[in-house]
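Worked problem 6 (solution included).
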Amino acid sequence: MEKKFLDETGLRHLIANKIKPELDKKVSLDENGMIPADKLPSYVDDVVEFEGFVDDATIQTSSFGGSTVYSVVYVRSRKCFAAQTGLTQDKTYYGNWGTRENYQELNGNPYGGKIFVEMNTNKTYRWSGTELVEISSGGVSLGETSSTAYAGDKGAKNAKDIKAIMDGDLPLVGVTIGKKSLSESGGISSPWTVKTADGKNVLTSSDIGNLNTLYGYTVTFSGSYMWKKTEGYKDPTAVNGGNWASKALPASGVWSDEVTVDNITEDTVITASVKAPKQGLILVDGCIKASDGTAMDSKSATLKVHFDYKVVMGAVGAALTVSSLQGKLSALGQGGDHYQQSGKSKVVTGVSTTASQYYVYAYPSKLGKLSRITMNDATPLLDGGFTFQTLTVKDPETGKQIEYNVYTSEQQGAFTNAKLDFA
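Solution. The predicted structure is:
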């Protein structure tokens, strides 16, 4: 068969009589570039909006019209849509209104082929034949029965609780007490300030942990605490008493509000404490149960200030006076008979006195009187072996007036390489 090219007449015939009729059969876009509604299937075109749900209402059989403002609602008890008019406290519901035919049939049943969009939530619904069923969640309704879907937030909580039970409780994260350093490198600086009794002389403290100082000084604490989120540990949820009981729990890695404790003159503990609910399985009244969140774990951190006392002991040529006691208190670090210790009790060995010497033992009277003085673990000397007096002196370091209990042996030369137990 011989092949020929189309001439101009043949080309016009092909376009006009063959190609164009076929194209006219296709859907054309409207002036807005959209597919005309009459070309859409009914289940795509039939989407209507309604205001929301009403549990129950008395629906008027009469119709209304004109310019009355209304909104369309779904009445659950009546299983139909209605037009709602009026103010909040004086609403009226009608079963026949201008756009009713977009929502339901004359018998009041919503159209089965429509998609209903709730304007307040953008959830979509369809009429199942007996109920308005949500389809925006996959065609199922939320609930806790065999025919409904379980709410996602409840399921997530259950999964979290089950994991907590299976994994068991986590330890509570630790707490650190300190003072945020003002230096560029940050870190922790000393929270302690030490002053003489008159408050005029301030000693620089470099202690960032516990403080050990002399009785007679006045100490001020000024600091904060911090906790940091740590893998394998649970976060605190609240403050648990202590010196920061009235302050808010800080966020992870953030210093808490600063707390100041002034005029500390005796052993004192500064405490930061946090807490969080126990998790997983716990022992309650002898039974293992899942924690209900009322039982709490707590974690605390402490800083302590401890005061040592100056104790004077040794052989003397005469009973102590205010002047001589004060002189011995000045001998700190100079090899004198002057010791720092935590309390009044001490065991001294190798005690010897010449024929012209007494033995003396003196300490701040706030510690109370001695209950015994025993020589060589056998001979009691508290009554009859030592005399007792009190002397008040101004400590040369701290500037504090301190009363001392002073015990002096009654006899000179009474001891030769003896062991004395003061308690």
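Discussion: The radius of gyration is 46 Å.
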